Amino acid sequence: MFQPQMLQHGLTSDLRLMLLCLCLCLRTELAEHGFRFCTESLEAKLQKQLEVPAEEQTEEQEDLRKETRLLLGLCLDSRARYRASSMHLNLAKQDYQNALNICRQEQGETHPQTLVLMSDLATILDLQGCYDEALALIQQAVNLSRSVGHPDRHVLLGNMAGILLHKGQLEDSVRCYREALSLAREAGDQEAMDMIEEGLKEVKKKRKEEKASQE
């Protein structure tokens, strides 16, 4: 989930309100209405902040603007997950893209959360059958994760392996899965290890199907 840096410095009243809304969204059938309230409230607040000329903004106001945008990113990320879970993929894609744009602008291209959002967006593209676009995006995320030593690189690699599997590039998929498995073992991430093992089983199954079709 999207994690604003300012969470480290305590909760503001806006953050408490938005987190409460998000909790309610995830627990009721009125999720879309709740998410809409969150996003529209934050967008309206941002619009008011932008009405202040840049030369007149104080450091405190700039910090508040960034905080508000990160909260908006939190809402968009959460709504994207909700929409993806109900297979509203086009809407989820739009929210992930907007959340990714915010994260890139406010926290940088190589920030861990930026890379996670790139991976999440790639997953949606994969589900939509846009394999080339998905692969290009997850490849970029993996390359950036190598350059900064991302702690969850094995998760990104596992996602990339799955996309390669769906694209039919089985050898490349196995290579990525094996690298991901090695890193997951080093990290002690049993959940990721289990998912990677399942992915390798899928590759094996796919190979058998291809062999049978050629006989």
Question: Would you write up a description of this structure?
Answer:
The protein is mainly alpha-helical. Helices cover 80% and strands 0% of the residues. The protein is built from nine helices and no strands. The protein has helices at 13-25, 31-50, 59-85, 89-107, 112-127, 131-148, 153-167, 170-187, 190-214. Helix 5 runs parallel beside helix 7 (153-167). The N and C termini lie far apart (47 Å). Mean pLDDT is 86; it is low at 1-12.
Keywords:
disordered N terminus; 0% strand; mainly alpha; 9 helices; 215 residues
State the helix count. Answer: 9
Series of H and E elements: HHHHHHHHH
Number of beta strands: 0
- Distance between the amino and carboxyl termini: 47 Å
Question: Could you tell me the radius of gyration in angstroms?
Answer: 20 Å
Provide the structure class: mainly alpha
Mean of residue pLDDT values: 86
Question: Helicity, in percent?
Answer: over 70%
Low-confidence spans: 1-12
Percentage of residues in strands: under 5%
The description of the largest β-sheet is:
none
Backbone shape: elongated
Summarize the model shown.
With 215 residues, the chain is mainly α.
Helices and strands in order, then pairings?
Elements lengths: L12 H13 L5 H20 L8 H27 L3 H19 L4 H16 L3 H18 L4 H15 L2 H18 L2 H25 L1
